[in-house]
Amino acid sequence: MLLNIAILATVLAISLLLWSPRVRRSIVWRAVTTPLASIIGSGFLVLGPILDSAYGKYAPLVMAGLCAGAFLFAYAIQYNITAISRGDRGRIVDGLETVSSWALGFAYIISTAYYLNLFGAFSVSLTAVNDPLHARLMTSAVFIVIAFVGWTRGFKALEGMEYVSVSAKLAIIAGLLVALAAYFHGLATDGGLKFNTPDLSGWPVLTLAFGLIITVQGFETSRYLGVEYDSRTRIVSMRVALIVSTAIYMAYILLLVFLFERSSFLLSETAIVDMMGIVAPILPFLLVTAALAAQFSAAVADTSGSGGLFHELTRNRISPRLGYLILTIVGLVLTWTIDIFDIISFASRAFAIYYALQAAIAAITARQAAEARWRIALFAALAVLGVVIVIFGQAVEN
Asked: Within 10 Å of residue 333's Cβ, how many Cβ atoms?
């Protein structure tokens, strides 16, 4: 009872903080909302069981590696944001920018399908119709709602929906971390922490991690907020979103992976709901709410991004509204034809293509500007890493 009260009190306190006038009126925080919505929505709840099942006690190291990779790729993108303001960078770079933008547009389409398929799975997880058919029906319904709002009211309406869902998600995540910390402390005091051995070894350790890059994706959305925010604000928003998301991810994984025997849960997209029911009775209901808010806000962020991208890349031939419609149609096809863990892998590869191209652009630009050799080498290495992820990234086997 006391733990449930502490959880609810934490959720309420964070909600009041995020809805305070000072926070809501902060230009930087509003800029942070879009990338943070996408990063935390990129599988926060599904990632815990996946890492616990595959990597056991070494899961925090893998999570740290994923976050480090996000920071490095973000550094390349931040460099490109700054370089754009310096003027013409040459035909090759302009061509790569166009190709990378197209890659990102299609990555958004796949990732939105991923987010909303998770939304569908969590939305029926505590009901009598907890099965793939009804999950896909729910996913399809939400796709249509988002497309309708985007078509009739545009980005500003979607942005308003995004802030509400991000705030709810962060408040519930804070409550979840309080519950995990209390449960972790209890097990540690009694010597009951679990140290599962990894289920993977050798090359698959890396290939699965490559297939999970989507779970830390989202920071790049700051790159495309130029209409609303200047370059400095966009760079700051990306950094803040990465710092906040990394702190949340690391705390979550460090607390979670030592609480359960691997045999005590069945790996699925909603495994976390059953696992958290053991920690506190109220958590499954809060987590379903958080999952719905997380996936919805991430889907809204990427829907908004894709609409604007296709509008820009086709030189106004495809309007943002039509972009939303295209995304919905492709998303519905993916929903009804592909397993969700395959969608995760496909989305990771799609974003890896974009990150590789952005890193290559940064390397070329840095070389043209006679930057330090270590910076040029770093960007080149990131471009190679992106290609490796595209080629070797693997889906989770459940």
From this structure: 11
Sign of the torsion angle spanned by Cα atoms 220, 226, 229, 232: positive
Please choose, from the candidates 229, 226, 242, 221, the residue with its C-alpha nearest in 3D space to the C-alpha of residue 305: 221
What CATH number is given for 2-392 in this structure?
Answer: 1.20.1740.10
**Nearest Cα residue to 295 out of 303, 285, 305:** 303
Closest CA to 146 of 154, 135, 169: 154
Q: What is the percentage of the chain residues whose pLDDT exceeds 90?
A: 13
How far is the C-alpha of 216 from the C-alpha of 40, rounded, in Å? 7
Task: Encode pLDDT of 142-182 as tens digits.
Answer: 888 877 777 776 655 555 566 777 788 888 888 889 989 98
Q: What is the pTM of this model?
A: 0.83
CA angle 118, 122, 127 (to 5 degrees): 150
In angstroms, rounded to a whole number, what is the distance separating the alpha carbons of residues 358 and 329? Answer: 28
Asked whether 376 and 356 are in contact (CB, 8 A), the reply is no
Question: Where do the structural domains in the chain lie, given as residue ranges?
Answer: 2-392
Q: Which two tokens stand for residue 250?
A: 């690391």
Token digits for 255? 């607390």
Q: Half-sphere exposure of residue 200, counting CA atoms within 13 Å on the CB side?
A: 21
CA 1/CA 62 separation, integer angstroms: 34
Alpha-carbon distance of 370 to 275, in angstroms, equals 53
- Whose tokens are 């009739």? That residue is 152
CA-based end-to-end distance of the chain: 35
**Rounded Cα gap, residues 27 and 23, in angstroms:** 9
SS3 99: helix
Please tell me the distance from the alpha carbon of residue 40 to that of residue 68, in angstroms, as a whole number.
Answer: 15
List helix spans (H) across 190-261: 203-210, 231-256
Instruction: Quote the tokens at residue 338.
Output: 């592909």
Determine the distance from the C-alpha atom of residue 158 to the mean position of all C-alpha atoms in its chain, rounded to a whole number.
18
Q: Which residues contact 38 (CB under 8 A, 6 or more apart)?
A: 217, 218, 219, 221, 297, 298, 301, 302
* Chain centroid, CA 318 distance in Å: 26
